[in-house]
Design brief:
Elements (H helix, E strand, L loop, with lengths): L3 H40 L4 H36 L1 H4 L2
Length: 90
Amino acid sequence: MMTTEGALDLLRNALIVAATVATPVLMAALITGLAVGVLQTATQVNEATLSFLFKLAAVALALVVFGPMILDQLVEYTRRSIASIGQVVP
């Protein structure tokens, strides 16, 4: 039988870790897409692949820069989750 409080803590922690892990990559794509969109509007260049390539490069750079932090958070969350199995499942 699963305790409700333990399960809710586990779910809350999962959502927090997911948001924390996704934020750097999503922000890099968002800022790059906005900058390329403004640049394309100003120059009247309407090429979809140009935006995609810059976003791809920004996401790759964000993963290189923030990858160790993301990996540390995922490993720590996994350790906490495994350690709390006894509290969630009596």
